[in-house]
């Protein structure tokens, strides 16, 4: 370092009050040389300075010492730093207790002062507190607690005749019950017959009679079957007053459950709701077979297109004919190429008494075999026929390729079974009594 520069630096530091610790000799300089340089620098600085201490001939209000002080000056050599990093003695040490109940702490308020960081800010010892403000705040250790001498019912507690009232403050440390109740007191007699007791109403503002002690018909005697009580065959009826002390059942059901009903009177009425009944099965007929048939012993008649035939029988029970089974066989004649069919008509009445048509079915020739067989024909008529009513089955050959044999056996069947034939479709019917035709009739009727 240049000796003159070092001397000037030492002079400035001396004027500013720098301690030796704030200045260090540059590395590589001899210590003795440094001392000599400093002395020389000091003399030179003293000689060059004017009477006002300035280093030049100009006038400057700023002293050499002021110009040498940095923006943040270090503390003086005699400064003893306090806990807040200042040089002044603090009135209280930071962290010391302060404030109400010594619950606060001193904290630094700058470098040379402290202030109390109070914990209890909104209240202090002696402030009013407690029920109806009848108590006082007091210190308990560092806590501020309310010393409340109140021992009675607190504001908001339930009170009153029917517990509809509330306690409210009536003075310092005092409460009183505010009760909205009015009227006769609970437990007093009430009712038409005077046998009931008043009780608190739901809102607690009065006592009311729970009900009227008169019976539902207006009297004071107990009724065995109260009005409105369920009754009746299906439970849909109800008892009604027949006087002040009596009732009777009013039942909307007209026909009692269990009553007979149905086409065959084998069904019964049953409850369909609590107020009505209906026949369980009005169509109580059953399907069954009437045994009018004989065997398939031999051909007893040949059915051709020119000679229709028929089978007559009488109903053995009430019902409708569902199907008949006939004994038939086809015979190829070679007269036509189309197989054709057999028309089967079901008629009501005797063949010689203009019977009424009930239904018509068709048997294709292909459904009839070349050997005797029982062939079934189904009908859709639902007309109900009475017991012993005559029925006629008319057979007409509509095939040019086939003729058809009707099979039966000796005339040993029931008297009501017979075979009929006519010479042409327009000629009268005549009975063929030598044999009985094979026949089985299925009926949807009664008596099975």
What does this structure look like?
The structure is a single chain. The strands form nine sheets. Strands 20, 21, 23, 26, 28, 31 and 32 form a seven-stranded antiparallel beta sheet that branches. The protein has a six-stranded antiparallel beta sheet with strand order 25-24-27-22-29-30, with no helix packed on it. Mean pLDDT is 82; it is low at 1-71. The protein is 8% helix and 35% strand. α1 (3-16) crosses α2 (31-48). Among the domains are: 184-213, no CATH class; 225-284, no CATH class; 286-445, Jelly Rolls, CATH 2.60.120. It contains three helices and 32 strands. With 448 residues, the protein is mainly β.
Break the fold down into its secondary structure elements and pairings.
Blueprint: H1 3-16, H2 31-48, H3 64-68, E1 97-98, E2 104-108, E3 114-117, E4 128-129, E5 135-140, E6 143-147, E7 158-159, E8 165-171, E9 174-178, E10 189-190, E11 196-197, E12 199-200, E13 207-208, E14 230-231, E15 237-241, E16 247-250, E17 260-261, E18 267-271, E19 277-279, E20 286-290, E21 298-303, E22 309-314, E23 319-332, E24 341-348, E25 356-364, E26 373-378, E27 390-397, E28 402-410, E29 418-421, E30 430-432, E31 435-437, E32 439-445
Antiparallel strand pairs: 1-2, 2-3, 4-5, 5-6, 7-8, 8-9, 10-11, 12-13, 14-15, 15-16, 17-18, 18-19, 20-32, 21-28, 22-27, 22-29, 23-26, 23-28, 23-32, 24-25, 24-27, 28-31, 29-30
């Amino acid at each position: 370092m240049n000796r003159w520069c070092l001397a000037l630096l030492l002079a400035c530091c001396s004027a500013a009050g720098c301690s030796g610790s704030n200045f260090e000799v540059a590395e590589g300089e001899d210590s003795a040389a440094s001392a000599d340089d400093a002395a020389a620098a000091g003399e030179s600085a003293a000689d060059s300075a004017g009477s006002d201490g300035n280093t030049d001939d100009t006038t400057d209000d700023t002293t050499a010492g002021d110009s040498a002080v940095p923006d943040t000056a270090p503390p003086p050599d005699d400064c003893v730093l306090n806990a807040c990093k200042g040089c002044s003695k603090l009135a209280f040490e930071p962290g010391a207790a302060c404030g109400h109940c010594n619950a606060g702490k001193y904290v630094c308020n700058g470098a040379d002062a402290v202030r109390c960081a109070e914990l209890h800010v909104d209240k202090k010892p002696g402030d009013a507190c407690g029920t109806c403000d009848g108590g006082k705040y007091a210190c308990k250790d560092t806590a501020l607690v309310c010393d409340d001498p109140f021992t009675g019912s607190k504001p908001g507690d339930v009170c009153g005749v029917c517990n509809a009232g509330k306690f409210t403050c009536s003075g310092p440390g005092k409460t009183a019950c505010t009760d909205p109740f009015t009227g006769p007191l609970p437990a007093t007699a009430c009712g038409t017959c005077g046998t009931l007791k008043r009780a608190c109403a739901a809102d607690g503002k009065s006592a009311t009679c729970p009900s009227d002690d008169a019976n539902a018909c207006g009297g004071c005697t107990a009724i065995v079957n109260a009005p409105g009580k369920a009754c009746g065959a299906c439970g849909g009826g109800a008892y009604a007053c027949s006087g002040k002390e009596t009732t009777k059942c009013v039942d909307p059901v007209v026909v009692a459950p269990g009553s007979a009903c149905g086409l065959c009177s084998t069904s019964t009425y049953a409850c369909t709701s609590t107020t009505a009944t209906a026949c369980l099965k009005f169509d109580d007929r059953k399907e069954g077979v009437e045994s009018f048939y004989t065997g398939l012993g031999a051909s007893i008649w040949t059915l051709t297109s020119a000679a229709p035939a028929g089978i007559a029988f009488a109903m053995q029970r009430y019902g409708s004919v569902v199907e008949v089974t006939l004994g038939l066989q086809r015979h190829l004649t070679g007269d036509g190429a189309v197989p054709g069919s057999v028309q089967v008509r079901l008629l009501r009445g005797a063949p010689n008494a203009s019977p009424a048509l009930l239904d018509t079915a068709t048997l294709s020739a292909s459904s009839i075999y070349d050997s005797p067989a029982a062939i079934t024909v189904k009908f859709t008529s639902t007309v109900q026929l009475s017991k012993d009513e005559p029925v006629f089955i008319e057979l007409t050959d509509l095939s040019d390729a086939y003729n058809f044999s009707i099979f039966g056996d000796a005339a040993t069947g029931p008297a009501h079974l017979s075979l009929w034939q006519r010479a042409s479709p327009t000629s009268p019917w005549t009975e063929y009594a030598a044999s009985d035709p094979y026949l089985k009739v299925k009926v949807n009727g009664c008596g099975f």
